[in-house]
Amino acid sequence: MAKIKDCVLENVLRFVVSIAPDGQTATINFDGLRVSVGGKNSPSVATQVASFTLPIIENATDFHVKLFISGYVFTQPGTRAIVVAHLGDTTASSSPPSDQAYLLELEATFPAGVAVQPTLFLLAERNSVDENLVASLEVEALDFNLG
Q: What is the mean predicted confidence (pLDDT) over 21-43?
């Protein structure tokens, strides 16, 4: 049976990984995985990409992974915040409603012998003519389930 062994982040981010004793679930809590725009001299577009690897052990057969991405978004009229997530052969995007928590779910099946390698792309943008418009998007946690 496949088990999550560890987490290797490709970017410099602060995070805490919790892996269940049976190796079937893992949670990554982030501190600082966010993008925002707004304010004097702020760019009109901000992006951030995060990619990381979850090494899998005891994976002699194909295995199924569910990924739940949770966070918080704030937008105003004239701004947008979008999260794009890629896992295996699945890509999903979401432009969550403003001023609330969001949850994005992905599922993928991986062949035996490979690691799980999700990638996230975060985008916040505002109309360039109004510096007072604010948008922010934060990823607080990723929850992985095998099986």
A: 90
| Calculated CA dihedral for residues 51, 31, 105, 96, nearest 10 degrees | -110
CA dihedral (67, 71, 76, 78) in degrees, to 10, reads -30
Is the pLDDT score of 1 beyond 90? no
Confidence of residue 9 (pLDDT cuts 50, 70, 90): low
> What is the distance between the alpha carbons of residues 7 and 52, in angstroms, rounded to a whole number?
7
Give the torsion sign (CA, 79, 49, 24, 22): negative
Of 3.40.50, 2.60.40, 1.10.3470, 2.60.120, which CATH number belongs to 3-146? 2.60.120
